Automatic annotation (TrEMBL):
Pfam families, A to Z: F-box (PF00646), FBA_1 (PF07734)
Protein name in UniProt: F-box domain-containing protein
Limits of the F-box domain: 2-49
Classification via InterPro entries: A_thaliana_F-box (IPR050233), F-box-assoc_dom_typ1 (IPR006527), F-box-assoc_interact_dom (IPR017451), F-box-like_dom_sf (IPR036047), F-box_dom (IPR001810)
Length: 387
């Protein structure tokens, strides 16, 4: 009788699986029930999320690309999502934890969640007024299961030339300022229909919850809540604004670590190490870039403390102000990696900045005429079938 096969201790087996690339883990789900259960375990997912290097997701008119950066090289990989029916050239992308959130123009009356590594997409059909704008997606983090919610606002076309044209959400409301929270749950079919009877209205002054078009495309999602940079209209102080989907309220989180910067300076917020903020600030006059990070993880119990992680002064840094397709970035191994349009051509480029050097890599310069992008951590979390 042949000897029984040697088996590694489970702790060592789990450690090895934690360090494998995501593309292998997707295939290894079918090896055994124990591995499949492990890949669905929340602690394993978070342990794996801290190990991979972030990548960029780049949408063009017809294709989704992932961009893996290993200084000084770039690997551009096409994600085969044509069968998912995504209208790429009409979307803006942000992230909601493990997923990409596709936000379309209001007249499209739809949004979607997607995991491009698993080629999964969940369509959310909006059965609402055509002037309804989706701001972002989050979930109630106070409950054991995720209940996804959508934040948006109604437009009032008759007031499009005034400052208040975004402030009214129904014909019955005349003087008050309203913003809208939209709940949705999934029916058995493949689409989620958001009906009028599910609308909830949030009555609060506009000054307390500025929701600009810039914030719509640059907010970040952390622990189910949305965060973005705003400016107090009275004090002219820059701060981080949030919307808490659990309590359904807008609230300021903290001031930015620098209040002396010019209104022309560029500020970009991002998630750092999965549970903190990072903040990029570029001086309009000198192009110097500062990266600040929060000292502790973001929650409601601790005061936010900022610390300067790096100051970059390379002479060939790109100009980040007023980029047509925005700026996304991540910090990894004391290196700043940015995705944005070239200063002259506007074509997408990757910038790798470390110390006093800045390397630029062009991304298909002649083939790409329109694009949108964001930083994203590869993972194998399945898109939920029911919300």
């Amino acid at each position: 009788m042949p000897p029984p096969q040697a088996r590694l201790p489970w702790e060592l087996e789990e450690e090895i699986l934690t360090r494998l690339p995501t593309k292998f883990l997707v295939r290894f789900r079918t090896v055994c029930k124990q591995w499949n259960s492990l890949f669905n375990d929340r602690s394993f997912i978070y342990n794996h999320l801290f190990l991979p290097r972030p990548q960029f997701i780049l949408l063009t008119k017809y294709t989704i690309y992932s961009i893996d950066i290993t200084d000084p090289t770039m690997k551009l990989l096409e994600r085969h999502t044509s069968r998912l029916g995504l209208s790429l050239h009409k979307a803006n992308i942000t992230t909601c934890d493990e997923f990409l959130f596709f936000n379309y123009h209001p007249w499209e009356e739809k949004t979607s969640l997607c995991n491009p590594w698993l080629r999964q997409v969940k369509w959310i059909k909006l059965v609402v007024d055509k002037h309804f704008d989706v701001f972002g997606l989050g979930y109630d983090n106070s409950r054991p299961e995720k209940v996804y919610k959508m934040l948006g606002y109604m437009r009032c076309p008759s007031k499009v030339q005034t400052n208040s044209y975004l402030q009214r959400v129904s014909m019955e409301v005349v003087d008050n300022v309203y913003k809208m929270l939209e709940y949705f749950r999934s029916p058995p079919e493949d689409q989620i229909n958001c009906a009028f009877q599910t609308l909830r209205f949030i009555d609060t002054p506009d000054e307390d919850m500025p929701m600009s078009e810039t914030a719509k495309s640059s907010h970040v999602s952390l622990n189910g809540n949305l965060y973005w940079i705003a400016c107090n209209r009275q004090t002219r102080e820059y701060f981080i604004q949030s919307f808490d989907f659990s309590s359904e309220i807008f609230k300021p989180v903290c001031l930015l670590p620098f209040q002396e910067s010019s209104s022309c300076d560029e500020h970009v917020l991002a998630v750092f190490k999965g549970d903190r903020f990072s903040l990029l600030m570029q001086s309009y006059l000198t192009r110097k870039i500062e990266i600040w990070v929060t000292k502790r993880k973001i929650d409601d119990t601790e005061e936010v403390v900022w610390m300067n992680l790096m100051t970059l002064t390379a002479t060939n840094l790109p100009k980040l102000f007023n980029k047509l397709y925005g700026v996304s970035y991540f910090v990894y191994d004391n290196t700043l990696v940015m995705c944005c349009g070239d200063d002259e051509s506007g074509k997408p480029c990757i910038y790798i900045v470390k110390g006093d050097t800045c390397n630029k890599i062009h991304i298909g310069a002649d083939r790409i005429t329109w694009f949108t992008h964001c930083a994203y951590v590869p993972n194998w979390t399945s898109v939920p079938l029911e919300f």
